[in-house]
Amino acid sequence: MLLREISTLLAKDFRLEWRQRAALGGLLLYVGSTVFVCFLSFSLRGGTPPPPAWNALLWIILLFAALNAVAKGFMQESPGQRLYYYTLVRPQAVILAKMLYNTLLLMVVALLGLFLYTVFLGNPIQDLPLFVANLLLGAVGFATTLTLVSGIAAKAGGNGATLMAILSFPLMVPMLLLLIKVSKNALDGLDRGLSQQSILTLLALNMIVGATSYLLFPFLWRG
């Protein structure tokens, strides 16, 4: 029953995204234009950025793209819509469907961003499988954390986008530091064993956020 509710809500989100293609186009335009601005900035200096700057800029672009992508999840729904969902499905289905949808969306955005980034700014990655795996893990982490924060911000009312930014950055910094560390190891081609502890920590963080959302979101929704 729970899986059926999740699949129904997930299909609803995909249909809404397809109908509102301008929002998706704006997100992709943001990623493409930001990468192009980085390309112009470094091309004026006569080359590509050094690997540490290349790595940091990529994650900054993906972080702000994730904020823009996830922010509209709950905040585009009116209180009346949320009340209607409350009568039809369980709150656990709502939060899990939102997390799954945002995860798929951010994975696509992350892979597209990496493709554009390597086209314009070169590809200094020595261990591509590790880098891509870390990138997808980061997309999952961004989606789970920001989805919960988006739900809190939408329930609080007022300027939800500002509140979401304030709440999310302290939560994202530890995850971002681990992601940058693993991707830097992949850029340098270091032994994968050096990244194992960081990857396990990222997996644990994602599981903790997912479990916390599953347990606490029903109380948030009823509030």
From TrEMBL:
It holds the Pfam family CcmB. Its main location: membrane. The chain crosses the membrane at residues 21-44, 56-75, 100-122, 128-149, 161-180, 200-221. It is a multi-pass membrane protein. The keyword S-adenosyl-L-methionine does not apply. It is found in: Membrane. InterPro entries: Cyt_c_biogenesis_CcmB. It comes from the Bacteria. Keywords: Membrane, Transmembrane, Transmembrane helix. Belongs to the CcmB/CycW/HelB family. This is Cytochrome C biogenesis protein CcmB. It comes from Hymenobacter frigidus.
